[in-house]
Design goal:
The chain is mainly alpha-helical. It is 75% helix and 0% strand. Helix 1 packs antiparallel against helix 16.
């Protein structure tokens, strides 16, 4: 009788390990796809802006036409290369962007990259204030509206949410200035800080340009108070736009969570409604908030143009409106390109956070 030798097969992987491997692969693929999508998004936006800026002709003619003699204008156009074929100009512009060179502004002869660095921090600071206000207003009021579902308080909060995201941000800013600055005289009407504080912040070592951080570093409480008093109205005008969206979203998701079976079981055990909302329905309702933050950042940057103009907040939005008025399309292209990169990168980061929190968003 011949003995047969058998080779034992390796033990099968556990179901949990298989699920982890699949989940990890899915998440890795999702991150890679979302990262690669940044490049076509920025490319399309930059290309669109470049082509629209050229519909009225070359940037020098648009900015300086009628201000210089025809022969001098043609000399500057030839020196800048704007008389070359559009395709050549476009390829050169893309190459400059990839090297971080956004050109030189026509109206004030500054490097666009310097303008972006100087004023971009101010826009970032305004967006930071706006997001803080949106979270502080939208999320608690959304939970309250869900707890008061179908009562008069819920109706009032829903109307408030509609007014927040339907009111033009410049109109909300003008109303806030009228009430709190003109009528009550409580808050300043414009600027990021008083001239005295701006001078003192410029004297600290390695200023960041983020006035609140610089004021805290200076160790001067009055400077911190001055910066916050200037930031309150523009932050409120821009933040309420997003707060209305958060309010409606939190309300809808909390109501949906409160109808889940485990909530009904807790309610049958006598758990108070307020505790159900605060302890059990709160966190699941925040997951959709994370997924829409990317879109809200785009809204904040768009609203920052009008907000900064209304409050004379010296940021990218204020500079963008200035360069548009001066028809300085080189500066406009650079600012819009940076905003496109910010929006694309922010959406990428938010999508990754959402994928880590909620695996259902993966594909």
């Amino acid at each position: 009788m011949t003995a047969e030798t058998t080779t034992a097969d390796p033990p099968p992987a556990s179901a949990g390990a298989t699920r982890r491997a699949r989940s990890g692969g899915s998440l890795g693929r999702y991150i890679l796809i979302r990262f690669l999508l940044i490049f076509p998004t920025v490319f399309i936006l930059v290309t669109t802006v470049f082509l629209f800026m050229r519909l009225t002709g070359d940037p020098l003619t648009a900015a300086l036409g009628g201000r210089l003699p025809a022969d001098q204008l043609q000399e500057r156009i030839h020196a800048a290369g704007y008389d070359r074929p559009l395709v050549v100009q476009y390829l050169e512009y893309l190459g400059q962007i990839f090297t971080g060179d956004f050109g030189t502004t026509i109206t004030d002869n500054q490097r666009v990259s310097d303008v972006l660095l100087r004023y971009g921090v101010a826009t970032l600071e305004l967006a930071f204030y706006a997001l803080i206000i949106a979270f502080l207003v939208g999320i608690p009021l959304g939970m309250l509206a869900a707890a008061l579902r179908d009562r008069w308080g819920d109706a009032v909060l829903r109307v408030f949410a509609i007014l927040c995201y339907a009111t033009p941000v410049f109109f909300a800013g003008l109303l806030l200035k009228l009430v709190f600055s003109v009528w009550l005289g409580l808050l300043p009407t414009s600027g990021r800080a008083s001239p005295r504080v701006e001078i003192s912040l410029g004297r600290i070592d390695s200023p960041t340009g983020f006035y609140l951080i610089d004021a805290i570093r200076s160790g001067n409480p009055s400077a911190v108070a001055d910066v916050l008093s200037h930031a309150l109205l523009p932050g409120l005008a821009l933040g309420l736009l997003t707060a209305g969206v958060f309010l409606r979203l939190v309300r809808t998701n909390v109501i949906g969570t409160l109808s889940m079976p485990y909530i009904d079981a807790a309610r049958s055990r006598g758990v108070p409604e307020v505790r159900l909302v605060r302890k059990h329905a709160y966190k699941p309702a925040l997951i959709p908030i994370v997924t829409v933050i990317g879109m809200q950042v785009a809204m904040l940057l768009a609203g920052a143009v009008l907000t900064e103009t209304t409050f004379e907040w010296q940021g990218l939005g204020f500079q963008l409106s200035h360069y548009l008025g001066a028809r300085d399309f080189v500066a406009v292209q650079g600012i819009v390109a940076l905003l496109a990169v910010i929006v694309a990168v922010t959406n990428f980061v938010v999508d990754i956070i959402a994928a880590l929190i909620d695996p259902r968003v993966r594909y």
